[in-house]
Every structure is written in C-alpha cells, then in structure tokens.
Amino acid sequence: MSVARTESLGTQVLFCGTADAFCSAGAAQSAYLLRGEEGTILLDCGATLLASLKRHGVQPAFIDAVAISHLHGDHFAGLPFLFLEFVYRSERKRPLSVFGPPGTAERVSQLFATYYRDVGTRPLPFPVDYVEVLPGQEVEWQGGTLRAFRVPHQEREVSLGYRVRIGSRQVVYSGDTGWTEDLVLHSAGSDLFICECSFFHTRVQHHLDYLRLAEHRHEFSARRMVLSHLGDEVLARREEVEFELAQDGLCIRLE
Description:
Helix content: 10-25%
Shape: globular
Distance between the termini: 18 Å
Order of helices and strands: EEEHEHHEHHEEEEEHEHEHEE
Low-confidence stretches: 1-8
Strand order of the largest sheet: 6-5-4-3-2-1-14
Strand content: 25-35%
Radius of gyration: 17 Å
Structural class: alpha/beta
Number of strands: 14
C-alpha cells in the first residue's frame, strides 16, 4: 500500500515492520513511517527497512527524520542501507535528521563503516544531523515535535519511547520495554499508541506480554492502541488477543 504526501489524507502511519528481532512469521523488523502535511518521520529502522519501503511503494527520499528507540540491531541496523540508497539511488542532498539515545552517532557511523568500508568511511553527499536525546527531552523536527521517555529494556544503555506530534496528531511509540506504569501516562490521550508485545504469557522484565497488558487494559486512554513487535508466542494465539494486532503494511489514517 503506497503512502502519498497529500494534504487531504491528513496524517498516515504505515507499519513497515512489526516483528521481533527474529522476523517471526516472516514479518519485517521494527519500522513505523509517520507522514503528515509538513514532514515524514520514521520510528526505528530495522535491518529490513529498505525492502519494506519498496514493497509498500514508499519512496525513501520522502523521509525527513529517523527516531531510533535504542541501539539493538533490529531497531537501527537499517540505517546504513538507507544511507546507501540516498548515495546511489535517490541522490539525496537535503539533510536527514537522526534522533536517538546517547551513542547513536558513533554506533551508526561504526556500523556503516563495517558494512561498506569504502563509502561508509567517506563524507556523505548530504548532511546527517544527529541529535542524541535524553529522557524527558523534547526536540523539534520538520513536521512537529518529539518527546523522549525512558523505558525499562536495557540494563546499562538507554532505551527510549517517543511521543510524536505530527501536525495536530499525537502518536506514542513504546519502543522495546518491560512493564511500567509510565506507558499509561505517556500514551494518555494520544491518537495512536504503538505498543510492543513480544510474548503472550511468558513474563520477562525487558519485554511486554499480552496477559500483562490485558491486566491494565482499562488504564489506557489512547484513541487507538495497536500491539506490535510481535513474537511467535503472540502470533500463535492471536485469536485470543483482544487488542488490535499490527501487521506489515497496515496503514492507519489519523483524521
């Protein structure tokens, strides 16, 4: 399903990648494209991102900014391939903003140089504006604002969720996270809450399971809540899930 930059369509959210790190059920890794009248932002950029964009008829050149939730490969390893696309196919000249937790600029640069030592160690023909954000910080991007909040996923490094204002709409993205009451707080009143759900019943500290979310379902006040980052355990029992489940290619229009 193609996603066009058209004023009459308002804000659109395309689910480019909805699986866990293992690409469960053949789905792509984490990537969510938000497009509004003033700009386009990509939330996370899994290694499968470029294939997903082209499968769904999206021109990568439309992307104005990328917000990385944390520095695990299934959430940021697609950036070098996006850069490669901009160098050899789209011939990008305008800046690309890349938001992420501390260490993002160094890790992305290292990964690009590892993948492609020749082009990855030379200056790119377009500016990459890295903005490393801390929990509680709000930054501006071309189409609105981005507020980061910390989520419990990694022990030492920072993992972030985001509340994104795009035009007049608010989209909240949990990133990868264990259970925290802050999810209820940060998603309150949003137009769309994209919430991870890696498991059905298995309970761990650094990911969410469906049964835990079901316990707290009455606390959430987002207008629409979609579970994503889905693992085999959830997908095998999807008929028992009472939340909306994401799938690659799902396109939501926020009007």
